[in-house]
From TrEMBL, chains A, B, C:
The keyword Nucleotide-binding applies. This is 5-formaminoimidazole-4-carboxamide-1-(Beta)-D-ribofuranosyl 5'-monophosphate synthetase. Its cofactor is Mg(2+); Mn(2+). InterPro entries: ATP_grasp_subdomain_1, IMP_biosynth_PurP, IMP_biosynth_PurP_C, IMP_biosynth_PurP_N, PreATP-grasp_dom_sf. It comes from the Archaea. The keyword Magnesium applies. GO terms for molecular function: ATP binding; ligase activity, forming carbon-nitrogen bonds; magnesium ion binding. Residues 158-310 form the IMP biosynthesis enzyme PurP C-terminal domain. Keywords: ATP-binding, Ligase, Magnesium, Manganese, Metal-binding, Nucleotide-binding, Purine biosynthesis. It comes from Thermococcus profundus. Residues 3-113 form the IMP biosynthesis enzyme PurP N-terminal domain. The lineage of its organism: Archaea, Methanobacteriati, Methanobacteriota, Thermococci, Thermococcales. GO terms for biological process: IMP biosynthetic process.
Amino acid sequence: MIVSTIASHSSLQILLGAKKEGFKTRLYVSPKRRAFYSSLPIVDDLVVTEDMSAILNDDGIVVPHGSFVAYLGLEAIEKAKAKFFGNRHFLKWETTFELQDRALDRAGIPRVEVVELEEVKSDELYFVRIEGPRGGSGHFIARGSELEERISTLEEPYRIERFIPGVYLYVHFFYSPILERLELLGVDERVLIADGNARWPVKPLPYTISGNRAVALRESLLPKLYDYGTAFVEAMRELEPSGVIGPFALHFAYDGSFRAIGIASRIDGGSNADHWYSELYWGERLSMGRRIARELRLAEEEDRLGEVVT
Amino acid sequence: MIVSTIASHSSLQILLGAKKEGFKTRLYVSPKRRAFYSSLPIVDDLVVTEDMSAILNDDGIVVPHGSFVAYLGLEAIEKAKAKFFGNRHFLKWETTFELQDRALDRAGIPRVEVVELEEVKSDELYFVRIEGPRGGSGHFIARGSELEERISTLEEPYRIERFIPGVYLYVHFFYSPILERLELLGVDERVLIADGNARWPVKPLPYTISGNRAVALRESLLPKLYDYGTAFVEAMRELEPSGVIGPFALHFAYDGSFRAIGIASRIDGGSNADHWYSELYWGERLSMGRRIARELRLAEEEDRLGEVVT
Amino acid sequence: MIVSTIASHSSLQILLGAKKEGFKTRLYVSPKRRAFYSSLPIVDDLVVTEDMSAILNDDGIVVPHGSFVAYLGLEAIEKAKAKFFGNRHFLKWETTFELQDRALDRAGIPRVEVVELEEVKSDELYFVRIEGPRGGSGHFIARGSELEERISTLEEPYRIERFIPGVYLYVHFFYSPILERLELLGVDERVLIADGNARWPVKPLPYTISGNRAVALRESLLPKLYDYGTAFVEAMRELEPSGVIGPFALHFAYDGSFRAIGIASRIDGGSNADHWYSELYWGERLSMGRRIARELRLAEEEDRLGEVVT
């Protein structure tokens, strides 16, 4: 069996994990990124192409990640002949505010407050979020007084949220249909360009993500997050049968209580930050990428591949 | 032999470590946290109870952590029938300013300056610290001019410290009576709600801890910290015979020199952040939890359990 | 074969790595640092001395790190009888602005803009960088209006750079002459005293490094950085034959694009932060220190030691 993906986002851990679980690997890479990926012994079959849609006809198991929808479009993915790890109909749930909110509300997970422009107070802080996963770019923080002018130039769907001063934590889950078990595999925080203000505040800076750091969450916060994860899995089982298969993430602001600010309906880039919680379930360190490959291997061994692939 | 603890703080690494060293594990968990902990294969015996004091009569080796004093009270722990890993009389040393200062002073470790209200200057910054380990909650930073008003509402013992602008580093030690060796096993920094100001300063925020990040300390700083650790172990041997057994932590502000701001007289939650220094001593990665279990195993093998258990 | 170094900077990972690859180890340590280093089982031969120049006549393979030039001087190192891992003539390339710029320019790596005092605008922010590797100390951020006064007191060579608000990322490479392969082994960010302003900005603080944190870089940024690394290796092959052997680092400001702010022409202290990218090349976690030892072992096995030692 061969595990295939596109060279970006979290493909390194996906392919490394696949190799460690004994699979062959195939990677679709654009010519300008070839040098780096071709230097890595984890890639068995490197397909250099400008056209990523070639993967839609791949004959292996395709593992989608956070660049798939941007590269290929939802419709093409849903119609593709290739076999995808996970529920490919789940991928769309992060792409609009409406779907995201519906999922979180069904799960009973508290969300950040959305504010209408009419309600905005001039001296309060707001966070303007652009719709869809964007690696943080485009979002901005602003005082109410400057909000109307700044949103007047936006060309994409957005919404205004009440800004929550506190830390932002991204929680990485894996739901295993084979084991019927939800695993909480890690927590990260984003490294943003805006973190440049930590040493001395200069001016509001872009929220564009440049990387991720692992966070060992205060243990007393984990049970509640695990309950949220469980509720999310149950909600998606109703909303998008057969529900979540494999990785997803819940994104939270934390100022003493958790409020969801988003979801990832596939492997989240924050799982690139190495975390140890997988040892709790497996006695060894598994990246999310390897966890995916482990599920494929378990499914294959039990002749249940159909339950984890769509 | 069975290793027992309460489901909170650092119980995950304690039980994972115990399993890896070949022990059975028992965990006391409140009903509302049951779902998460019962999903983990590291727990052999899950005791679901609202009443954590059940652990005081446990027939295994109880490993105390940072939630024990809050849940059970010092007196109950000191009188408990159960066997505790470590010197149970050491646990109290973090609970009051007076004990903490006495330990640090005896060890010759420089401390943050404590300021009397009369000495406060209106335009300088101070840090008000609430007594006892509290996960950071309640502490606050304030200008001298606002200090009197703000402390007038405090209902708990506190003190005023000169604020040290710089980084705060938490150093995790393990003293092994079996090997007669002090090990420096890791350094972390806290992830606080107040870190929400890193991207853009909004207002002073709570110092409540939400997690921990590992820090690889600049190597040239380690020898001095190791000397402080050694001095602390020697001081405690006199102050609370038989002294420190197992884990403790020293908490420092660093602005070019180190000043202690506190101690943990048990495993510190910051050791939840995975660190590599244990490889220096053991050639493999041991969490603090596993290091505890390793000590138990070494003691058991040499028939010296009495030296690490009280 | 014995691997020797000086007790500072990154000697822990160098010796741990050497032990894991099967070498004997020797460490030169000053008396005041003896307690810590002598507690570590990774040191076979501890040479306690005030005079680090003893290592210049060592009969093993000396692995230089970021403290060597400060302790021993470039000239003494270049003339030393001892065998050094790597190209000892490469060590000087980080020590002056002129060499650093020449290397970066030859490689075509964009650099931070250097500003002449005459061009400074009073209301803009600048970063004053002191020449040579200094662990961050001495550098400062300042408004144009205060710049002339502040630099008037500087006694060391410096330059004025346009301040880039954003994150600062340090990328760790290893060039293997044995495998003819460039490996990108990790990324870190520095933990500075100035990070004390993250929770509440107090005043501009020293940029002195107190530690390092691993960053999992956004994967889409890695190919470009790998290309920069490759270009740097090629440039140094011309500028300082036989070029880079082993570890080096490129230091970047990132605000949406990368601009180099410096280099390390030896193992960089930021590689003390544990990173997982080595698994991509080796299937297991190797520190930079161990990667050096691995190269020595590979060279020895193929009887090619002369290619990695000067």
